[in-house]
Write a structure and sequence with these properties.
alpha/beta; five-stranded parallel β-sheet; 2 domains; Rossmann fold
């Protein structure tokens, strides 16, 4: 099976570009694709709060719900801001585009670096959290958690390479099954809490944990801030829809905004409901043990069908939550690549109309992080929300400025900001006020996260984002240099480099392949020089004898044989070419024609020397040198006997 056949089997047949509009997502699929991360974060956001509060003892866990409500209020504020972003920037790009349009290049690159970091961690955390859900039900497979997480990343990578619409169809059922299952658990818990319909009341567990340390004053406030910072993991992925507006079916902005509202409702009802019931039941976080959601489901619904349903789809949605990263990392990378801040190839779509290069890069980097942190999502959480809070702050600050621009317009007047078209809006003042308030709040949360999580690992993100920004500038500088070098501005005939009438053909023997290269060289130059390296007198004698067998084919071609007493034949060959290029024809373009035979299969090619490949690599850096390959395809005797193939054997394929 060839590589092409294997690719078709795994990825599917390529889609034409004209099908792009048909591969877009309806609201049902889009919610599963883009909202799986913020929805799935409910499986561990409450636990992240409780894991900090438990230091003060079980009594302190009563503060879980107030902290969760504060986080929920922040989520609603951010969702409102991103709905405005979606409506005003329908081409997508989210915080990066908003910051570029309103704050400038550096803030935009900060937002881009922060979001790319967040999407990488989304994949690493989600896959590891999915493994945690599985090992909560089957503790005996805990030692294999790293392999399980890597397998999950590989599976999601494969699904995404097959196309957005196909992956959305696959992810839809687990997402809605998780939401439905947890809603049922919460509903049963509420009914039992109020003692409705004659069901058995919900009885809190009689569990007491002594405080690990007694904290007062600033230390106590610091701990509460740390718990709040842990709960902000519920905000991760909220911006995903704003980055991928163009993945929606028309009307793109309206469908994306509606999906954002549905996502906010689902995520916050789950978060607040889990936090309320977990606090009432006195559930305790267990490090590397059963998750809070697992305990909640078992205590409310028992260990039967409902428990198996919730745990199964919790594991699935935690695995599939990585899909948010797979949707937005490649898309944001394409925006940065288009602007010259990432390699250009990251803006190219693959066979299935997805950004395949970004998908593969994301899979590799996130897998390395899973290995480094041994698939422990709790250890990764301090790194998780830092980047997203920075992007929230920059996005809302940018929207604040945009609303100010809108307020300067007269009713009915429109203007172009360079990225989007704006028009006067009656309610621009209160929209600006809400965006400004959101920017201030998320900025404060960013500072809190940085301060409280710094020594726990947030310093990695605090260092990584500036390094990414520096990389963006370096790549952009390279592209600017290339553009300046290739520019035709002011170009004249005097700037054109003349082409020398000489072609050098390195040959190791006289055979069909080398004769074809010599014949081709004679068509493009009057001065054709075949050059061979003789490492032994017998080699020289053999070369001369075989050369003289074809006087008509070699007539007029100069054959230079260089005697060399060492084994590295490329060294004298490169020296010869360098001498012709820089001494005989200085400042002119010299052509090197390299004969190369191509074996019939990949495995057969491994059996032959790679001299031609190495020679091309050695010559690539020489100025004013053109290297031309003349391949000769080796066919099996059976193929040569087929009449229909004989006429094509000498074609350059």
């Amino acid at each position: 099976m060839t590589f092409s056949n294997l690719k078709r089997f795994l990825i599917g047949e390529p889609f034409p570009t004209s099908r792009e509009i048909h591969e877009r997502l309806d609201k049902v699929r889009a919610l599963a694709v883009f909202a799986s991360d913020p929805i799935s974060s409910n499986a561990y956001a409450t636990e992240a709060i409780m894991s900090v509060l438990i230091v003060l003892g079980s009594g302190a866990l009563n503060m879980t719900l107030p902290i969760a409500l504060a986080v929920a209020a922040l989520v609603l504020m951010v969702i409102f801001s991103y709905i405005q972003t979606i409506l005003h920037y329908p081409d997508g790009g989210g915080a990066y585009t908003v910051a570029k349009d309103n704050l400038g290049r550096f803030p935009a690159l900060l937002a881009g670096g922060a979001l790319l970091t967040d999407y990488i961690l989304t994949v690493s955390v989600s896959s590891s959290a999915g493994v945690r859900a599985v090992t909560s039900a089957f503790p005996e497979i805990w030692p294999y958690r790293i392999w399980l997480a890597l397998a999950a990343i590989l599976l999601i990578t494969w699904l995404n390479l097959r196309g957005v619409r196909e992956s959305g169809t696959v992810f839809a059922f687990p997402t809605y099954a998780f939401v439905g299952g947890v809603w049922v658990v919460i509903a049963i818990g509420i009914v039992r809490y109020f003692g409705l319909f004659g069901v058995s009341p919900l009885v809190p567990l009689d569990v007491t944990v002594e405080a690990e340390e007694s904290l007062v004053g600033f230390a106590f406030v610091w701990l509460i801030l740390r718990a709040f910072a842990g709960g902000t993991t519920a905000l991760t992925g909220i911006e995903a829809i704003s980055n991928g507006v163009q993945a929606f079916k028309p009307p793109e902005s309206r469908n994306a905004a509606k999906t954002m509202v549905a996502m906010g409702f689902m995520a916050m009802t789950l978060f607040v409901g889990i936090s309320f019931l977990a606090t009432y039941l006195n559930l305790m976080p267990v490090e590397e043990g059963e998750s809070i959601l697992s305990q909640l489901t078992r205590n409310i619904g028992g260990g039967g069908f409902l428990y198996i349903w919730v745990q199964t789809f919790t594991a699935l949605i935690l695995f599939l939550a990585a899909n948010t990263g797979y949707q937005d990392f490649p898309r944001l990378s394409s925006f940065l690549a288009r602007d010259g801040f990432l390699p250009r190839w990251m803006q190219n779509r693959g066979d299935r109309l997805v950004f395949s290069s970004g998908i593969v890069v994301l899979a590799v980097v996130s897998s390395l992080i899973v290995i480094a942190f041994r698939a422990n999502e709790i250890a990764m959480l301090p790194l998780y929300a830092l980047g997203v809070m920075l992007s929230f702050t920059l996005s809302q600050a940018g929207m604040t400025i945009l609303m100010g621009k809108i307020g300067q317009l007269a009713p009915g007047e429109t203007a172009n900001t360079g990225v989007t078209e704006i028009h006067y809006e009656k309610k621009w003042r209160w929209k600006q006020a809400l965006n400004a308030a959101g920017a201030v709040v998320t900025g404060i949360v960013f500072i809190i996260l940085t301060a409280t999580k710094f020594i726990e690992g947030a310093w990695i993100v605090a260092l990584l984002i500036p390094l990414l920004v520096a990389m963006f500038y370096t790549i952009n500088h390279h592209y600017d240099s290339v553009a300046a070098s290739l520019s035709t501005r002011g170009l004249s005939d005097k700037d054109l480099v003349p082409i020398a009438d000489v072609a050098i053909v390195p040959i190791a023997d006289v055979h069909r392949g080398s004769i074809r290269a010599l014949t081709y060289a004679r068509r493009i130059a009057q001065d054709v020089r075949a050059v061979s390296i003789a490492t032994h007198p017998d080699v020289r004698e053999r070369l001369e004898r075989r050369w003289n067998r074809f006087p008509k084919l070699t007539e007029g071609i100069r054959h230079d044989i260089i005697d060399y007493d060492f084994r590295d034949i490329l060294e004298p060959l490169v020296d010869y070419i360098d001498r012709v290029n820089n001494r005989e024809f200085p400042g002119q373009i010299v052509t090197v024609v390299v004969p190369e035979f191509i074996a019939e299969s990949f495995w057969a090619r491994l059996l032959h020397n790679q001299t031609a490949n190495i020679l091309r690599g050695r010559l690539r850096h020489q100025e004013h040198l053109i290297v031309i390959d003349v391949p000769y395809h080796i066919e099996s005797p059976a193929e040569e006997e087929q009449p229909e193939r004989k006429g094509t054997r000498w074609s350059l394929r």
